[in-house]
Amino acid sequence: MKKFIIEIKWALIFVAMMLLWMLLERLFGLHDRYIEYHPLVTNFVAIPAILIYVLALLDKRHNYYHGQMSYLQGFVSGVIITVIVTILSPLTQIITSLIITPDYFRNVIEYTISTGAMSRAEAEEYFTLNNYLVQTILFTPAMGIFTSSIVAIFTRRTNADGL
């Protein structure tokens, strides 16, 4: 367990960031009054998400690998963070949907119907907690592994790098 303490720490930081991001989206009206901007603005969460992976892998390189870390070591560390975040993602989604923004599904259903993008039946089937739980369980590992594969390139440092 001590071997993965850095990954656990950064996974918890990632989860806290996601919950804070959802709270800020709600406070800025992206889940109700300005819901039409939500699909665009929510994508900007990628910026702090990537930053957290960079900081996590730099932390791992500096504090566990003593300044030297191969691509594979960095990638594996990122994947471990991703696994932990994925395990916690249903809880994160439940907290978001039931506590932070309990009216989101109702609001997005009404907005989607008003734009003609979906019928009421389609929107009510799509915008549900169960569907979002499935999406988060599938999307989180895909994005985490992709991010880990890229960030590990930039955070590796070996003697062969001349550093």
Topology:
Layout: H1 5-27, H2 38-41, H3 46-63, H4 71-100, H5 104-115, H6 120-126, H7 129-155
Helix pairs in contact: 1-3, 1-4, 3-4, 3-7, 4-7
The separation of the N and C termini measures 30 Å
The biggest sheet amounts to: none
**SSE order, one letter for each helix or strand:** HHHHHHH
Count of DSSP-assigned helices: 7
Question: What is the count of β-strands?
Answer: 0
Helix content: over 70%
The pLDDT mean sits at: 96
Strand content: under 5%
Secondary-structure class: mainly alpha
Number of domains: 1
Radius of gyration: 18 Å
Q: Which spans of ≥5 residues are poorly predicted at pLDDT below 50? A: none
Principal-axes geometry comes out as elongated
Keywords:
elongated; 163 residues; mainly alpha; single chain
Characterize this entry briefly.
This protein is an all-alpha fold and 163 residues long. The chain has one domain.
Write structural notes for this entry:
Helix 3 packs across helix 4 (71-100) and helix 3 packs across helix 7. 74% of the residues lie in helices and 0% in strands. It is elongated and about 60 Å long. The two termini are 30 Å apart. The protein has one domain. The longest helix is centred in the middle third of the chain and has 30 residues, at 71-100. With 163 residues, the chain is mainly α. The chain has 7 helices and no strands.
